Amino acid sequence: MPQTDTREPIESDAPTSSGELLFQRCLWCGTPAYRRSFCRACGSTAFRRERSSGAGVLVRRVGQVPLNTWFAAMDEGFTLTCQVTRVEPVVVAVGARVRVVRTVPPLAQGFPLVELTHRATSSDRW
Description:
Strands 4-5-6-8-7 form a 5-stranded mixed beta barrel. Strands 2-1-3 form a 3-stranded antiparallel beta sheet, with no helix packed on it. Helix content is 0%, strand content 35%. It is mostly beta strands. A hairpin with a 6-residue loop joins strand 4 (55-62) and strand 5 (69-74). The chain has no helices and 8 strands.
């Protein structure tokens, strides 16, 4: 039976100069995730931390428009709940490219902040 309590030293989720953040990758099946206690694909609790490029695409709005909270599908394959900053909510649309500008420490509350890098055009929208 595979050992599932393998832990690596916890690194800080503090952003680097390019706004990168850490995500988890399951040691058994390779599924990427963000802040999970077990793998959604195989149920394992063994994860390896990897550094994300911080780039992704907005896929769905969450909550009320004034909060500007979205789900972003990150390039590495995990989904991130985030808040879009430095732009009015009416400008943000599904399909817009974003990058992380501020992450949240592991024990803190709140959402990572992202900013638009490429607005969604009608052909980019899902």
